Amino acid sequence: MSLTDDIKHKALYLGFDLVGVTDASPISPQHVESLAKWLKAGFAGRMDYMHRNFEKRIDPAKLLPNAQSVIVVVLNYKPVRHPSSPIDTGQGKVAAFAQYEDYHAFIKKLLRQLAGFIGSIAGPSPRFKICVDSAPLAERALAARAGLGFIAKNHMLINPALGPQIFLGEILTTLKLQPTEQILPPSESAEGKCSACNKCIDACPTGALMPDGRFDAGKCISYLTIEYKGSIPPDLAEKIADRLFGCDECVLACPLLQSAPPCKNKQFKFHPDRARLDLHDVLNLTADSFDAAFGDSVIKRLGLETLKRNANICLANAYH
Ligand code: B12
Ligand code: SF4
Ligand code: SF4
To answer: Is the C-beta atom of 30 inside 6 A of ligand 1?
Structure first.
């Protein structure tokens, strides 16, 4: 077995759903162009970090000098259970990714174990850099190049078998590994099916996903409720409806989600009770009770004041 095969087996053994390898060369000129255009159009809103480190974001070797390869892992987070009763007035919805323990910490922990394993079998001192979400790295573009799926109209990296509710994580390494193959023949592929569909665009409440394929994060409910800390303009606040944290509409609308299996990693702690939160309970949280309730969650990163801002918006929408 090759080193790449050993790494793949270990990654699956550790609990990832898929693993792929690509070289550490810069992302393709088309991807660079689409990122540059997106930034120039102002579609990053106030996410200033997206404007910083452009050179690193397009070139993994600028993030880890002498990087040769990128190992990309996938963790399926499609919830096993969806809430069974309709949402009550006075409750706010939490996006599926936030109903689990903080995925950044969970995936990083497994990637550290994977890097430890690789270091133990690969010979003289390879170097590694572990990335999950927050590093300036074009994760979707690299995952597509590693053969893990395709970038769909809802801008998600979709794996035809696992669907769109998948997290990505990476290990950059100075080791030279055999790249895995790109998947999906062009005809009969899931990507082909995507081109004949528009459900995600129709489902987007704010028009953040545009019919021509562009994506204005400034209008995205995920951005507004998680990234944007200011006062939300009334027309957008109204469209947030009862979404307290994040948004799943363009993912839930996708037919490729329906056929996907649920998360099978039993170690990845799932809290179905976080799918809907009582908005008055949220407004009554103190710093201590907030920490106690969400200490292991991505919601903790938002901060209590912004969560309360969102709860007030949802309540105003409920009683409007
Ligand atoms: C900034 C950010 C956001 C922003 C902006 C989202 C966006 N679409 O850009 C906001 C806060 C809105 C957001 C929301 C969400 N996010 Co987010 N986010 C990121 C982050 C940090 C950077 C994404 C980025 O570079 N955006 C800039 C745009 C231009 O890049 P891009 O969408 O990746 O597009 C690339 C390709 O798609 C390609 N491309 C785009 N259009 C075209 C067109 C053509 C013709 C070509 C050739 C290429 C191309 O070029 C781009 C550059 O490589 C990544 C982590 C990371 N480091 O990559 C997570 C990440 C993308 N987010 C993730 C998740 C889970 C979400 C949410 C589902 C969370 C939620 N439920 O609320 C939503 C989904 C919204 C959506 N439909 O995209 C996951 C997505 C996993 C996946 N399967 O794709 C990531 C990868 C985090 C992770 N490690 O798992 N996110
Ligand atoms: S996350 Fe919601 S608001 Fe953002 S693009 Fe998808 S459907 Fe639109
Ligand atoms: S909803 Fe349809 S168009 Fe959108 S990503 Fe899924 S298959 Fe593609």
So the answer is: yes
